[in-house]
Hints:
Blueprint (H helix, E strand, L loop, with lengths): L1 H15 L15 H39 L7 E7 L6 H11 L14 E5 L1 H11 L2 H13 L6 E2 L13 E2 L1 H10 L2 H12 L3 E8 L4 E6 H11 L3 H10 L9 E3 L2 E5 L12 H14 L7 E7 L15 H35 L4 E5 L17 H16 L33
Parallel strand pairs: 1-2, 1-9, 2-5, 9-10
Antiparallel strand pairs: 3-4, 5-6, 5-8, 7-8
Helix pairs in contact: 1-11, 2-10, 3-4, 3-5, 3-12, 4-5, 4-7, 5-12, 7-8, 8-9, 10-11
Amino acid sequence: MRRFLLIFALTAGAACCLVTAGCSSPVRTMDKDTLDRRVAEHEQRVLDQRDRLAWRLLRRIERLHAAQQSAGHEGPVDVNVLLLSSGGQYGAFGVGVLSGWSESEAPDYMLPSFDIVTGVSTGAMIAPFAMTGEDYSIRRITELFGQADASFARLRGALFFLPWRTSLFDTRVLRDRIESEVDEATVEKIARAHAADQSLLIGAVDLDLGRFHVWDMGPMAVDAMATGDHTMLHNALISSASIPGAFPAVEIDGVLYADGAAALATFLGLDGDAVRQVVHAFEARNPGAPTPRLRMWMIVNGHIDAPAELADLGWTSVAVRSASVLSRYSLRTTLRQMQLGAALIGRDIGVPVDFRYISVPENVELPEPTNRLFDQAFMAELHELGARMGRDPASWRTEAIAPDIPGSSILLRDVRFDAMDDIR
Length: 424
C-alpha cells in the first residue's frame, strides 16, 4: 500500500509543478496563538493522561484480583494487552487471527478478555471489536473487511492531485460504513468496558504539534452514551486511519489529525516505568497478593521485513523501494522496542512478562495494490491465512529480533561462546 501511495504522491508532486500558483488549501480554524498555547500545554496533557491510564490499570488489576479471590483461586492474575498494528488492507490478516484465535482451546493460548487494547490505523478499526471479545463483534469486523472494495476509497476525479484538494481519495463510503458499524450498541460496550477499568486506546498523529496522540476511547464512549452524539468518538477513530495525503485529515476541536502509522506502527499506551509503578502500588495496597502476570499479544498486519527484490536504477524505483524498507524497518524497530520494554518491566517487577507476536509469514507474497486500496479477493485470502494461524498456538512467536545488529533482519539466538575458543 505504501508503494501505491508513494507512486501517487510522486505523480501528484510532478503534476503540481505544472499547476498555476495562487491556489490555496482550505482555511484552518486554529490561529497561531492557539497553536503556541497548545504547544506549551502539551506535556502536561500527556502526563495527566499517563496518570489516568496508570490509575485505571491499577484498579483493573485489583478488580481481577478480587474476582479471583471470590472464585477461590490463589494464583497471580493475568493482565492481557492486545496491540494491533497498522497495515491498510492487510488488516484482514489481523481480523482473521482474531477469528481463528476465538476457536482455539489450547491451554494458555485461548482468546483472553483483554484489559488493554491498542490500535493504529487499520488496527484502530479492529480494536473496538476486539475489546468486546464477543463472537458477534468479531463477525462484524470480519464482514466490514470482507466487504471493503474500491467504493470505499475513490480518486477525486481526473484532477485528484490538485494541491488544494484535501486528499487524493474520497472516503465518504468508508466513513459511513465505519460509523454504521461502530453503532450505539458497540459504543455502549466500549463504555461498559471503561466502567470495568479496561482501556481502549487509539493512536493518531497531531499534525499541528507533530506528535503521536493517544485517544482514550472509553471516556468518549461514556460521553457519547450520555449525549447521544457519537461524532467525537467516530472522528477520533477515523483520524487514526486517515492515510496522510490519500485520505482526508480529520479536524477535531480545531486540531488536525492523521494516520497514527506516520509515527508508530503500534504502541502500549503506558511507558515501562508507569507499569512498574502500577505493579508495585498493587503489591503495596494488597499485601501478600502474587505479582500480576503481564501478557502482551501483538498482531502485525503484514510482514516484519521488506522482501528482497532488485531495484531499478530509476529515481522513482529507488524512492519507492526506500519507502518500503523504511516502513518495514520502522515496524521492526517498534516491535523490538516492545520486546525490550517487556523484558525490562519483567526485570523490574521480578516476574517475566510474556511477549508474543504474530505476523504474515515471509514466504507469503503481499502484492502492492496497483490501482485500488482494497482488493477483496486478496483480503479474503489473508483473512483465511490469519484464521489458520490464529487457531494454531505455534503461530505465536517469542524470539527476539534485530535490528540490534545493524543491517540485520535475522532472529537472534544465544551467543555460542563454546564455539569461540579458537577465535582471537
